[in-house]
Amino acid sequence: MTATTAAPAPTWMSMARSRFVVEIREFVRSREQMVFIFAFPMMLLLLFGSVFGDQVISGDVTFAQYFLPGMIASGILNTGFQSLAMSIAIDRDEDILKRVYATPLPATAFFAAKIAQVIAVTVVQLAILIAIGVVLYDAQLPDGAEGWWIFTWVFLLGTAASTTLGIAMSSLLRNAKAGSAVVTPIVLILQFTSGVFLVYTQIPVFLQHFAAVFPLKWLAQGMRSVFLPESFEAAEASGSWQHPATAIVLALWVIVGLVLAVRTFRWTRHDDN
Fold it and tell me: Relative to the CA of 190, which of 4, 76, 174, 246 has its CA 20 to 30 Å away?
């Protein structure tokens, strides 16, 4: 008789990779998510660029050029916070999370796959927005290695803060139906007060102070420092890009989101005993 060789046990990496493939397939099959993540920001950029694009904000910076960094920052928040919170809430309502929890898949591998899916989708989304901004509105790409480095750390810290807060928010939603009603107003308020839809310095000062508490304002400001000319720095509310403050605030929100996610996440529905 020929001895049979047992198949090697799957590694953490292989399980995370397999789950990542599942997450990507589910995203591609969801037309609503595809439209929200890709088509909606593109339409907003084209709409605002067409209506207000030629208006000069400061120096030679037009509104279309100013709007692009805000949409990039908003795209990071939308994918990592809004879309992730709602998709996890749906998975919980449909008992998908309960079934995943009952499998040998480690929780860390599951969340690693979720975060990898968010990063992959966000990269594609930002590439599309940047291409539109450069081709149609003469937006400038990051200047040299330093510019790309700033873009990278702002992107990574912003994505980390958005995803951890999205995971935490998913457990605060009583059910998936409440997701849109709860999460969408939060995102809209932050967009209107953080320099995404409106020029930040034209927002009332008390709303500027309100926005400065949350990560989107710093994300948008960090992206402006990358995509707008250096001369625009003086037009910022503080007269500076505030890179150290941006890194500190985003890092603090990563910690807050991580603590909340660990303490509040649940695999089962709220009405389960």
Answer: 174
